[in-house]
Amino acid sequence: MRDKATGALGTYVADMPGLAQQTRVYDEYLTRLRDVPGAEIGYLAVGIVGPRNRVDKLVHRLPLLP
Fold first, then answer.
1. Cα 12 from Cα 41, distance rounded (Å)
2. Whole-number pLDDT of residue 34
3. Which Pfam families match (predicted)?
4. 8 Å CB contact between 37 and 59
5. Helix, strand, coil abundance in the chain, percent, nearest 5
6. pLDDT in tens, 17-61
7. Residue 7 pLDDT > 90
8. To the nearest 10°, the Cα dihedral for 29, 34, 38, 44?
9. Distance CA 19, CA 14 (A)
10. Which residues pair with 17 in a beta bridge?
11. Contact 8/54 with Cβ under 8 angstroms?
C-alpha cells in the first residue's frame, strides 16, 4: 500500500518508522535510519493524504479518519 501511495499523483505519504519509537533524540534517529537499507525499514504506520477518491482506491475503502 505504501509503495502504491508513494507513486500516486496528488497524494502525500507520511511514514512512521519503528526507529522513530526507539529513539528520543532526533539526531540519533537520523543516524540509525541512515544505517538501515530502505527496503528493510519497518513501518508502524503510514499516513496517506490526498483526494478522497485516490486514497479510497489505494486503501480499498478501509475506514478513514474524518
1. 19
2. 94
3. DUF2000
4. no
5. 45, 20, 35
6. 999 999 999 999 999 999 999 889 999 999 999 998 888 888 887
7. no
8. 0
9. 14
10. 43
11. yes
